Amino acid sequence: MTKNYFKVIRPGINSTFQDQGRKNLYHIGVPFSGAMDSRNYLLSNKLCGNKEDYPVLEFAYQGPLLKYFGDKIVIAITGEVNFTIKKKDKLINGTCYQSFILDNGDELDIVSTNKSVYGYLSISGKFDLKYQWNSFSTNTKANIGANDGKKLELNQKINIFDIKKNLNIKKLNYTNIKIEKIRILRGTNFDYFSEKGKKDFSEKEFMVSKLSDRMGMRLEGSKIENNFDTNIKSEGLIKGVIQVPADGNPIIMLSDHGTIGGYPKIGVVISADYDKLVQLTPGSKIKFKEVNLSDAETLFKLYEMETQNLISQI
Fold this sequence. Notes:
The protein has 314 residues and is of the alpha+beta class. The protein has two domains: 4-161, no CATH class; 182-312, Cyclophilin, CATH 2.40.100. It is 15% helix and 31% strand. The protein is built from four helices and 22 strands. An eight-stranded mixed β-sheet has the order 21-14-15-18-17-20-13-22. Strand 17 and strand 18 form a beta hairpin. The longest helix is centred in the last third of the chain and has 20 residues, at 293-312. It is elongated and about 65 Å long. The two termini are 35 Å apart.
């Protein structure tokens, strides 16, 4: 019998195990998946003294309520998250980017994300999960990955092994920031759109629809006019690419996106802005700003350097 485990008292809305995703499978229709917000994923692992590629529990909006059984363990939560830890004699209001110790019988209640979508729970040990194609990442649309490709379920038992004996508490002074505009590169079908369509795309404001998930983010606003063809021969897609179907409302492909699609592509979100993009809640406003490839590469390098600098501070 496993000595250390969480019991799921409430599974939350969309709680799944994620890591850095799976590579080189686009040719068989399998996307990267992985943590939506890469920076917060990496920081959560570092706060628990883990390797960067350890699986974590990603949750959206309302997270899980977990009761812990076993030896002392360190946990950390990143993002903008409201959570509490219930011990026998007190209730602790949790703080993101700080590690905490859980004792046998403690309850961790991840109440909600705060004006954001995704948060991350890491532990100073290993979740007992199975690899699929060299990744633990869960894609619930395709039932791929850890936990039989499914979300957490009520009364599920999450076994834990290889708990670290070092229970050092770590903390990072970090605040997630918003950006005024999401920067993009021109898509391969940019010239399919009318001059008015291009202008509306670059100048008008769009709203994040409720019809958004790990697969894609639908936007509402000015209809983007296509003066060539609203349906094209299916082509390969990448994370962050912006398709425009016949109704003129853009769709941004996210981590669990389909690997091919037949809607024209007007742009693609640069990698440096992806983490902030996925944290935009329904009702949030988006404006796009075009940059060139050289600038996009520079911005990505700076973002990566900033992330590694934050990791080094823990």
